[in-house]
Amino acid sequence: MSKKLPTRQEDYSLWYNELVKRAGLAENSAVRGCMVIKPYGYAIWEKMQRQLDDMFKRTGHENAYFPLFVPKSLFEAEEKNAEGFAKECAVVTHYRLQTDPDNPGKLRVDPNAKLEEELIVRPTSEAIIWSTYKNWVQSYRDLPLLINQWANVVRWEMRTRLFLRTAEFLWQEGHTAHATAEEAVAETRQMLDVYAEFAEEHMALPVVKGVKTPNERFAGAEDTYCIEALMQDGKALQAGTSHFLGQNFAKAFDVTFATKEGGLEHVWGTSWGVSTRLMGALVMAHSDDEGLVLPPKLAPIQVVIVPIYKSGELDALLERIRPIQQGFIARGIAVKVDSRDTERPGFKFAEWEMKGVPVRLAIGARDLDAGTVEVARRDTKEKMSLPLADIVASVDQLLNDIQVNIYQKAKKFRETHTTRVDSYDEFKRVLDNEAGFVLAHYDGTSETEERIKTETKATVRCLALNEPDEDGVCMVTGQPSVRRAYFARAY
Q: Domain named Aminoacyl-transfer RNA synthetases class-II family profile: which ranges (predicted)?
């Protein structure tokens, strides 16, 4: 392997960027602000996608696909939404290129090929989807409409970072229509629970479920629910959102339905999404100075077997390893035998450690003769010698233990980096010296929230759903407050 990674302590940002590249997850592309997701990184995303897709379908949702382009007039229809995304939009104005008469061999935009109406490259799909729903919904019998799409979106970011903030990214977006406000709110909350379950059970990432303040709410929503996670540098990361749209989009696109009673009403809407930003969360929440640490449920390779052999012995050793490999496959465990004869075992150990493979087996002929296998776990770096006879069952249990341990470690980190404060001075001191989540009273006004953000760079991450009401006073203005909010500096 090349020289060691920068440490998290030295330069967390550089550590993250280098790790994403060296672990083979992604790299910068020829298009400024966009990334290439490499096969190993895409394999992790595929596992995320597969699991989430199963969870969506279990809750009654179906997949569809809608156009990449949104006519400007449709985009403008819901004013708050259009205004909220206006500064991030990529816009198509022409539909043809032509040879440049002044520069042989070059092309230019054909000035005569201007579109009658500009097309927005979707930053989110509410506009195009709700204009479609107008044709799909006539009666209460057509509801609820439970649709999800897996797609790419474009938000023109100038300051980008692989996975966390790129001009184009991959995501899923659910868009549902309901007969009542109660049904739509229940859907919004249900999908928040799905995201939280996925984060905790599969990503091994503890999250706080909450609702956003009006300042942080999705443009065009009545309420935005979110899951917030804590990264190892003490910064928060919004890992998923679920929006109750009220009737805003239904009214903007005139999506109505005939009720059972014979009346005509606008439907109630939701939208919800997670993106490849979860890949960044996975890296930052668990990894260490030697490389990735992947929870087994999302690891593309859960077990790697490194043969230990002398010259001329490899083929015979691989034959003896094959039944072990087949045993893992039969158990549903993703296993790889690193049979390269161009690299030494030490190089392979370091490479698979960098890639975060949860369990490594080093197997030589002498081990097989003795009926034991050297097993190393990535999360604790502990090595052990296990009996060959029940190695598949032992490793299966070990993978479960690693999944739990990674979650518990992240949860303990969050607990030790969550602080309750009562004064603004203490709030600033904790942010500067300890970081993490800070629970504090504030008066709930946009002005106070904006002042705190300007002065400390901390935002209200959410009003946690499980945080009890508690009378207090705003740490800034001294005005009454009925509950604490979660504050943090964030990605």
A: 27-295
